[in-house]
Amino acid sequence: MSSSFLAALPEADLHPGKPPILRVDAPGDAPAWAAENREALRGQVAEHGALLVRGLGLRAAEQVGAVFRGLGGDPVEDREAFAPRQVRGPGLYSSSTWPANQPMCMHHELSYRLEFPGLMLFACLSAPGQGGATAVADAERVLEALPAALTERFEREGWLLTRSYNDEIGASLTESFGTEDHAAIERYCRDHAIDFTWEPDGSLRTRQRRDAVVRHPLTGRRCWFNQIAFLNEWTLAPEVREYLVDVYGEDGLPFNTRFGDGSPIGEDVVQLINATYEDHTRREPWQAGDMLLVDNVRTAHSREAFTGDREVLVAMAEPQRAADRHPTPEGGRR
Predict the structure, then answer these.
(1) Total count of domains within the chain
(2) Phi and psi of 55, rounded to 5°?
(3) In this predicted model, what pLDDT tens digit does every residue of 193-232 receive, in sequence order?
(4) Is residue 38 part of a domain?
(5) Where is each TauD/TfdA-like domain found (predicted)?
(6) How far is the C-alpha of 44 from the C-alpha of 49, rounded, in Å?
(7) 92 close to 315: Cβ distance less than 8 angstroms
(8) CATH number of 232's domain
(9) Measured in whole angstroms, how far is the alpha carbon of residue 165 from the centre of its chain?
(10) Where in the sequence is the domain holding 201, given as residue range(s)?
């Protein structure tokens, strides 16, 4: 082992409004450096909830994949995706396809799945001209800041995600389930507590109820953990929402969220959640070669609107399964 690799890592720089930033001198072998400093890096992620590593000089997908494997081990497969991604290597993906001029609001990746990643890994190969930061927010603090009456209701009921799969908007059946075979999709839904209905035109609609608040697997602390605001109709740009409602109807939106009892979530609630996230947001513009590690339970992340070319690769690791994910009672139906 290289002695330079084994030297103690410095502590991350801490500045208000920014994620912790660890500045390193670009090693000759970034994957080896990452693997040999894994425990120290993960220790800083555990301490801060997220860590931006600057100076690694990441430039190619193969290099990024090797770095991520050294840090996170076996990747979590991207299933039930709400937007398409490109596969860039084993367990390595492009960012979700999403209009550059529209932000992806704060959320916890795949928080609507029974099994979800505990660790998110991002690498910037090409920084955008302006904007495009992958910002982060502390889920414990967001939970504390939201009105108690609201969070208590979500803790009692959970939250409901409804989806309508079509060939025009959002992820296709193959992109979400890895297959178009109806029998295989039905098995997946039953195995993962997803209620499903095939429409006369062959499209699929699903419902799944999940916890909105979970305990961190290591600290036991309660975290606001969901995609209630991000996947809600009121987070969409007004003209996009109007178009989708006009074309698909209120009940046919590609995705939407409700209270756990099925009641609609009002625009005021969605705005309140997003405003609370903004109050706790930490952001730092990407630089080419950066790596960002995010504790997916303790820390929400977003993608801000941008101009220019932006290439950020993503991997997910350390699968977690909450003790109680509010499974859908029906367990699936035709």
Answers:
(1) 1
(2) 115, 0
(3) 999 999 998 899 999 999 999 999 999 999 999 999 999 9
(4) no
(5) 31-315
(6) 8
(7) yes
(8) 3.60.130.10
(9) 20
(10) 141-275
